[in-house]
Amino acid sequence: MSSENKQAITAEEFDHKFSAGEDMTKHVDWSKAIKRVSLDLPVWAIKELDKEAERRGITRQSLIKTWIVDRLDAAKLAQQAV
After folding, report:
1. What sign results for the dihedral spanned by CA atoms 10, 13, 18, 23?
2. Are residues 5 and 28 in the same domain?
3. What CATH number is attached to the domain comprising 78?
4. Full-prediction pTM beyond 0.85?
5. Distance of alpha carbon 11 from alpha carbon 14, whole angstroms
6. Which of 41, 77, 33, 31 minimizes the C-alpha distance to 61?
7. Residue 75's domain spans which residues?
8. Is the N or the C terminus of the chain less surrounded, counting Cβ atoms within 10 Å?
């Protein structure tokens, strides 16, 4: 369901409905949900990531997220060009 189809309600209404046990899925935009993943990497790769993150002044997690999103965007563009 797209975010345009979501029924807007106040936070107070949301809390009340949630506490009453109502189905809240029609009020949640799941496209913004985050899922945590675990990633095993060799020590040398972690060290290189840390060096690059420090050089950029960001955290390792931010660097990894940025690189992954950049790569996914590039792959999507390449696929659209086909």
Report:
1. negative
2. yes
3. 1.10.1220
4. no
5. 5
6. 41
7. 34-82
8. C
pLDDT at residue 6, as a whole number: 62
Count of residues making up the chain: 82
Long-range Cβ contacts of 24-28 (<8 Å, 24+ apart): 26/1
Picking from 21, 65, 57, the residue whose alpha carbon sits closest to that of residue 39 is: 65
Contact 60, 53 (CB under 8 A): yes
Mean pLDDT, rounded, for 38-47: 97
Does residue 73 share a domain with residue 39?
Answer: yes
How many structural domains are present in the chain?
A: 2
Amino acid (one-letter) located at 3: S
Amino acid residing at 43? V
Longest dimension (CA), the chain: 51
What is the residue-wise DSSP string for 27-63?
G--GGG----------HHHHHHHHHHHHHHTS-HHHH
* pLDDT, position 35: 85
